[in-house]
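User: Hello! I'm new to structural biology and keep hearing that structure can be predicted from sequence alone. Could you demonstrate with Coiled-coil domain containing 125? Please show me the input and the output so I can see what each looks like.

Assistant: Of course. The first part below is the input, the amino acid sequence of Coiled-coil domain containing 125. The second part is the output, the predicted structure written as tokens.
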Amino acid sequence: MSRLARPPSEAEVQPWETEDDLADGDLGYGLGRRPGAVFQAQVSQLSTPSKRSDGKNFSPLPLPGKGEERRASFQSSRHKSLQDTCPKESGPSYYGRQSSSDSNSELSNAELKQRLHDTLEEVEILKTELEASQRQLEGKEEALKILQSMAIFGKATSHTQVVLQKTMEQKRSLEKEVNALQWEIEFDQNRFKSIEESWTQKYDRLNCENAVLQEALNMKTEEIKMLKSENALLNQQYLEALAMLEVKQQMVAQENICHDKSGFTEVSSLEVTILPGTQNYRKLVPT
């Protein structure tokens, strides 16, 4: 006995109904129905967005990623649910139409449950992807912070290198100045040393000359002392001899003494210039 199929209700057909059966390739079999067969859904009806009765387009929920596989699994599950929910027709055609209506309602419920299940799965997948994207975004933010810190560190390092280079240049210039000053100091020390040596030699030579002059002075002093003693002795003898002469002879002798005194005075003045500081040079001249 062939199975009788009842047209689906408005609630069942509304999500997937079309204005024209021929628009989706129906060649007289109806919306997936054949005479004496159960309701069969085509893949084109599931994948092609349909129009609502009010003229607005209606499309099922988008399934991002693996859409074709989900549609195939949905259609296979729908066929299985149809085969499971449609009992074999063993009674009159009235009971066959009633069982077809029940199976269509159960099919609609199973379809909605399957779609709800798929939607929940998609929501979970999207949640997982969102969490992964958030973690990836956080990782990128951390990497950006690290790159920014590295850039700041690089700028600080470049500034430090510039300062270090300037410091090294200043150090080189200071070393050159120190070397120049050290060379000048060594040159001045050598010059001062040569001057000191020359003055030391002059001092030693003057000391030697002074010692020679001091010795000559001592000899002259001794000689003068001897001459003084001789002069004193001669003066005493002269006075004694003058006392024994007469008056006329004393006058002649005094005149001779005056002439001798002038010559002796010249000699004594020369000796005084040779021996400065001699306080007793007047003793050489008889009074």
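User: So the tokens describe the shape?

Assistant: Right, they're a compact way of writing down the 3D structure. Reading them back into a model, for example: The beta strands are 50-51, 57-58.
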